[in-house]
TrEMBL record:
Protein source organism: Paenibacillus terricola
Domain ABC transmembrane type-1 positions: 72-284
Homology family: Belongs to the binding-protein-dependent transport system permease family.
Chief location: membrane
Protein's recorded name: Sugar ABC transporter permease
Chain segments annotated as transmembrane: 15-36, 76-97, 109-129, 157-180, 201-223, 266-288
CDD domains: TM_PBP2 (cd06261)
PROSITE patterns from the UniProt entry: ABC_TM1
Localisation per UniProt entry: Cell membrane
Amino acid sequence: MRQLLRGYSWKENMLAYMLLLPSLVFLAAFTIYPIIKVVDWSFYESAMGIKHYVGIKLYERVFHDDVFLKVLRNNLLLAIVTVPISVLLALYMAIWVNNKVRGTSLIRAAFFYPTLIPMIAIANIWLFIYTPDYGLLDKFLQLLGIDGPNWLGDPSWVLISMMGMLIWKEAGYFMIFYLAGLQSLPKEVYEAAEIDGVKPLRKFVSITFPLIMPTTLFVLVIATTNSFKLVDHIYIMTKGGPNNASNLLLFHIYETAFSFWDMGTASVLTVILLAILLVISILYYGILDKRIHY
């Protein structure tokens, strides 16, 4: 180690450090410091603006809270369902629009368009779609002679309805990453496969999918992170109801912090959220990264 430090020239790398300094300052100010502060607050209970150190008491209270357990279960279920479906749908759409067919540009724009719409606008659009009796979805079902449920008022359907909206919004966004990955693949490999008479399905399984695994890993991390940071559409559409059936972890943190002004519990919930995302990222990179050829 000492030999490495002796051969390291700080003067030669000073320019690189100076260029990185603004980013490091913003990273420390808006990421590292808030994380440290949240962890610190999670050990204090506040009352009338006065903080009292309580140790892990708030953690014990949170893990015995039925509302938190239900919210956590909702969020995990949402991630388990929407992430693989969104990723697979995005890959299918990317392969489709990557082919040279008539109207490809229009199809790409149609797939990507939901990503450009603000989440508040999307929530209002789907609020109209899910309106009982008069909504677009119920009108379509009435043509088939089917009576639709109360999509946002029935605890059995509200989370499923949220999943449908999230998949619709996220798939087009992930498609862009897959499309970029597909267009960067070496054409020589596919030409050799065509000469050997490899069928399309075999070509996808043996060539395309392994080569876009780096993109898949990136998309999985982004998709999982997005599934845990949903607030806007819940605030507009359901407020977490009915009976917390559509409540998710980040919205629960928002309510705890800014509706009940319980900063200690909100900090505990934030630490738990960060821990979940950290564990998921470690699992992704620990398991998938070893099976990826860059």
